[in-house]
Amino acid sequence: MTAAPKVPKYYAVRTELERIVDTLEVGDAVPAERDLAERFAVSRETVRQAFHELLVEGRIERRGRGTVVAAPKLVQPLSLLSYTEGAISHGRVPGRLLVTWEDIVGDDELCGELQIARGSTVMHLERVLLADGAKLGLESTFLPWDRFGSFTDTFDPTTSLYAAIREAGVTFGSANERIETVLASPREATLLETTTAMPMLLMHRRSLDVDGRPIEKVRSLYRGDRVAFEAILRE
């Protein structure tokens, strides 16, 4: 008879820690590593490993010198909804912090994807995405300046870009998206108040209007501990 595999100490601690978290409310303090190490008669390093896994999964989060129960992940639909619409649909308060707003000369690849002449001016907008004040993602959007250059004088970067595009008379028709897992650069980790060890979800999107004309190219980086994506599939 084959013996059952031995359960690692950290995993047993993690299981108990999950049970503790399930009894608490969002924002409640989680017992300190030292207290848990004494309770379970293990080293603090063992407890720290269990903490790390729950941090990555978004069950708990660091707040100051302590650890608290985290809010549920923001589940974003894979659709032509804007980030604002997706957040509101889940009862969250969306927000944005402007990082960069500049006009750049598009390289050959970018101009090709936006179907504009080589060397054309492209508007680059980089913003931190918020939900209930928490930093969830970093969005970098590229727009053809000859089509959306007026936004320099009219657009409020703390609001929904998709709403502004629609108000300009442009109707979204389709989008191509690719999602992969990556680690953040030091700059990105700083902007999102996390570490370079935190798994991230990287989304590349290219949106077209109803006539098949490119609207935007977007690179969005989301904290894996705070955001998830879902899609509705039909035959």
UniProtKB/TrEMBL annotation:
Keywords: DNA-binding, Transcription, Transcription regulation
GO biological process: negative regulation of DNA-templated transcription
Statement: the UniProt record of this protein carries the keyword Transcription: yes
Residue ranges constituting the HTH gntR-type domain according to the UniProt record: 7-72
Keyword DNA-binding on entry: yes
Domain of life: Bacteria
PANTHER family for this protein: MANNOSYL-D-GLYCERATE TRANSPORT/METABOLISM SYSTEM REPRESSOR MNGR-RELATED (PTHR44846), MANNOSYL-D-GLYCERATE TRANSPORT_METABOLISM SYSTEM REPRESSOR MNGR-RELATED (PTHR44846:SF1)
Record's protein name: GntR family transcriptional regulator
